[in-house]
Specification:
The protein is α+β, with helices and mostly antiparallel strands. 48% of the residues lie in helices and 17% in strands. α2 crosses α12 (393-418) and α11 runs antiparallel to α12 (393-418).
Length: 831
């Protein structure tokens, strides 16, 4: 390509501003959409994690296969067994878990902070240095001294050994926000309202994040990192908290590391009954793969959709170029007659195509920039590394490649097709022979457009059906009028004190004018934090394999009434069930658990075994059965559920509160905060939001995919309709004389109208048939994104086919109407 070619192509395109603008905008839509989605794909799936040699980082997860539990945390003992038993596979291994806490700010006002508890080697394993101060040392992880053994009657009790300090490293953001970057805090204990006082030893670099899937409830950006004084307790394998990150040895494969983990898990199943009956296994996954497992199918589906959209845009512009090049047949013939080679003509058409693609690419980059901004706003919460989505060198490279590829796709065929003009006919001034000769090629391009756009229409139809089904799902409670929030802080040092504080808080909130009822629980539906415990019936006493997993919830009396969860049998909790002290071993279960524990029988008055507060399961009595709540996801029913009173676990466990009002629940936020502050200024209110918002957030993933695929499908359908219109308009133009002859021989306007519409319908039917076959094969990759509908749902396929027939009919109507209105005398004179 020479400068002269470029100048000439620019001059040619300037003479056809409508064509140039239309083609460039069409390419801009395809390039912009594909660039925006590629920015998500790049940040989430392709970019390496921001750790040292991230390709060797893996997550080792615990699964309880016999109880259908995945990504379960490990106990101290299981973690140490894994670390010691797999040294041949892993260079190093570290553990982490996080929890929220309340810390006073400089003025004493409480502030919620996120705390991470890590083994002392955590930052060395991740390869992230300390910005200021020092890293943890092995001494920071020495276990706390054990309490002295009970003394005999004649011996005085041995003095307790002093507690070791809790060592802490701060995030850079918290260090600046709370202490203003003052390094004099190093080596000094922080002022806290809690039972421990961390001693600050260092500060992390800015923007250090933990990357785990949202489902495992690991906070991405902890404020305070404390060293885990990890003690080995072989007897207590029920207390679980640790999530494991490991680094593979050099040249070590995942398969070899998995074999080492399998051997450790097998030893655990052999030596410990709980591990055996639960089906304890360890799963080794690359860290990035583990992080993106939940969102990977949706992102690849969206990427496939925008590639289809880009191909449709290219097909549309290719058709425009075919028609335009055909109309330039005389010009090209003159240039060929004057000695222009075929390659010279091809090159000139291609230069024009590259210019159009370049204009479209620049405009598409601007659309992508706007699109990324909107994507961040509507992206679901389970989309990891959302802050990394941006236009970087890789995204720019993709834009350039996409624009270049588009130019080749839509430019090469028209260039080659028109590079050998019929010199005799063209120079004689005959009516555009190339226009007629390129009819088959233009029809083929339109058929491809229709097929590709129909696949996108099917995908959007399936997402519409899924979203509709999601809207119809009954979560097991009424979210309207509910305001939920966390109350964090110290409620008291004894069960009695905590019970009093909970009661006082309940009364303060209930006294707010307009509040109909108040409740609290831990966890709260759709707010996260659910984890399973063991349950069983009498047969589990003789066969431990009969124990199953159940999600638990700790609630106050009145919880089901406030949530409006239907009571199906028996009764719900009363204040007497929630009184501090021993006893009160009563539970409420949901319909799922009742059906599984006592199929075809009345569950009320029966007993089940539960392990939650003792090393071994204990008997509890079922006093009521309620409807099942969708606690973790609206898309999936989830596990069975069992409910305990707050007093069952020594009171004060409920942290998530809810108030019900008859009108806008969000309007009570200020009064709720004021009521809690009056009770105790040290209590902190966090994560306040209407429960309707939680429901919308639970729908966000489906809504995100629906919105994007729906937009792509609408654009694709419009482009396909425009392409069909263009082909039919060209056909009417090239067949003007033929239409005149038909009309002169007696064909009426209706017959001519049917002739043109019939041609459009034939092209559409062929395209739809190809699209049906492609959609039947390709939509299966969307299976994990769909809710209540199959990927091959016949109703959706029929509905989308009908919709596209309407689009095709509209695209065919205007050219057909023009053809039917031709004056046969004028039409015959055109030849």
């Amino acid at each position: 390509m020479s400068l002269r070619d470029l100048v000439f192509a620019t001059r040619v395109l300037r003479k056809s501003p409508v064509f140039t603008l239309t083609a460039a905008l069409t390419i801009a839509l395809g390039v912009g959409a594909s660039t925006a989605i590629f920015s998500v794909t790049n940040a989430v799936l392709l970019q390496p994690l921001p750790y040292k040699d991230p390709g060797r980082l893996v997550i080792v997860s615990s699964d309880m296969r016999k109880r259908n539990v995945r990504d379960f945390p490990l106990s101290n003992a299981n973690y140490i067994d894994l670390r010691e038993g797999s040294r041949n596979a892993f260079q190093d291994m570290a553990g982490v878990f996080t929890f929220p806490n309340v810390m006073p700010m400089a003025d004493g006002t409480p502030e919620q902070v996120q705390v991470a508890v890590v083994t002392t080697n955590f930052f060395r394993l991740m390869g992230n240095g300390i910005l200021r101060g020092r890293d943890f040392t092995d001494d920071d992880g020495i276990p706390q001294p054990q309490p002295p053994a009970a003394a005999g009657a004649a011996q005085p009790a041995a003095p307790a050994a002093p507690r070791l300090p809790v060592m802490a490293i701060l995030s850079y953001e918290y260090f600046q926000r709370r202490f203003g970057g003052d390094t004099s805090i190093f080596g000094r204990p922080m002022v806290t309202n809690g039972p421990f006082t961390p001693v600050v030893v260092g500060v992390l670099p800015p923007n250090f994040h933990l990357y785990f899937p949202p489902s495992v409830n690991i906070e991405a950006a902890p404020d305070i990192w404390i060293a885990n004084r990890l003690a080995y307790d072989a007897a207590n394998r029920n207390g679980v908290s640790i999530f494991v990150v490991a680094r593979l040895k050099e040249a070590m494969s995942i398969e070899t590391a998995q074999a080492a983990a399998d051997a450790v898990a097998a030893e655990g199943r052999k030596n410990f009954p709980i591990e055996n009956t639960a089906g304890y296994y360890l799963r080794v996954e690359p860290m990035r793969q583990h992080l993106t497992a939940e969102v990977r199918p949706a992102i690849w589906s969206l990427m496939g959709a925008v590639i289809f959209l880009l191909l449709i845009a290219c097909s549309n512009v290719a058709n425009l170029l075919l028609v335009r090049a055909s109309l330039r047949e005389r010009e090209l013939a003159v240039r060929a007659a004057l000695g222009g080679s075929r390659w010279r003509l091809v090159r000139q058409i291609l230069v024009e195509a590259f210019l159009v693609a370049g204009l479209g690419g620049v405009a598409g980059l601007g659309l992508a920039w706007l699109g990324i901004y909107e994507l961040r706003a509507i992206a679901p919460a389970n989309l990891p590394r959302l802050d990394s989505i941006r236009i970087d060198v890789w995204v720019l490279s993709f834009t350039v490649i996409a624009s270049f590829s588009a130019a080749v796709i839509f430019g090469l065929i028209p260039a080659w097709r028109t590079s050998r003009p019929d010199l005799m006919n063209a120079l004689r001034g005959s009516r555009s022979p190339a226009l007629a000769g390129g009819r088959l090629l233009r029809n083929l391009v339109v058929v491809v457009e229709v097929a590709l756009s129909f696949v996108l229409l099917i995908g959007s139809g399936l997402m519409v059906r899924s979203f509709w089904e999601l809207q119809r799902i009954n979560p097991g409670f009424d979210p309207h009028g509910l305001l939920t929030f966390q109350v964090l802080g110290i409620f008291g040092n004894s069960p009695e004190q905590r019970a009093v504080t909970v009661h006082q808080l309940h009364e303060q909130l209930r006294a707010i004018p307009g509040v109909q009822s108040v409740t609290a629980s831990f966890p709260f539906p759709l707010a996260g934090g659910f984890s399973p415990i063991r349950w069983g019936t009498e047969e589990a006493l003789v066969d431990n394999t009969k124990f199953k997993a159940v999600d638990f919830q700790i609630v106050l009396p009145g919880y089901f009434e406030t949530m409006r969860t239907p009571l199906l049998a028996g009764r719900t909790f009363t204040d007497a069930d929630n009184a501090p002290g021993p006893g009160h071993n009563v539970v409420v279960i949901d319909q799922f658990l009742a059906d599984k524990a006592f199929p075809g029988q009345l569950a009320v008055g029966r007993r089940i075994l539960i392990r939650i507060r003792t090393p071994e399961p204990e008997w509890v009595e079922v006093i009521g059965v309620v409807a099942h709540q969708r606690d973790v996801s609206l898309a999936e029913p989830g596990r069975e559920q069992v409910y305990f009173t707050d007093a069952f676990l020594n009171s004060g466990a409920v942290a998530q509160w809810a108030t019900r009002s008859a009108n806008d629940s969000a309007a009570y936020g200020a009064e709720v905060r004021a009521a809690i502050k009056r009770l105790d200024p040290k209590l902190l209110v966090a994560r306040m939001e209407p429960v309707d918002t939680l429901v919308r957030e639970a729908q966000a993933g489906t809504r995100f995919s629906l919105l994007l695929i729906g937009i792509f499908a609408v654009i694709a359908a419009l482009l396909a309709g425009v392409g069909l219109y263009g082909v039919l308009s060209t056909a009417v133009r090239q067949r003007t004389a033929e239409i005149g002859v038909r009309m002169a021989l007696g064909a009426g306007p209706g017959r001519i109208f049917q002739l043109v519409v019939g041609q459009g319908m034939r092209l559409s039917i062929i395209g739809i048939a190809l699209g049906l076959a492609a959609a039947y094969a390709l939509t299966r990759v969307m299976a994990t994104m769909l809710i209540g509908v199959k990927a091959t749902d016949p109703a959706t396929f029929i509905a989308m086919a009908t919709l596209f027939f309407l689009i095709a009919t509209m695209a065919s109507w205007l050219p057909a109407r023009r053809a039917a209105g031709l004056d046969p005398t004028v039409a015959l004179r055109e030849e």
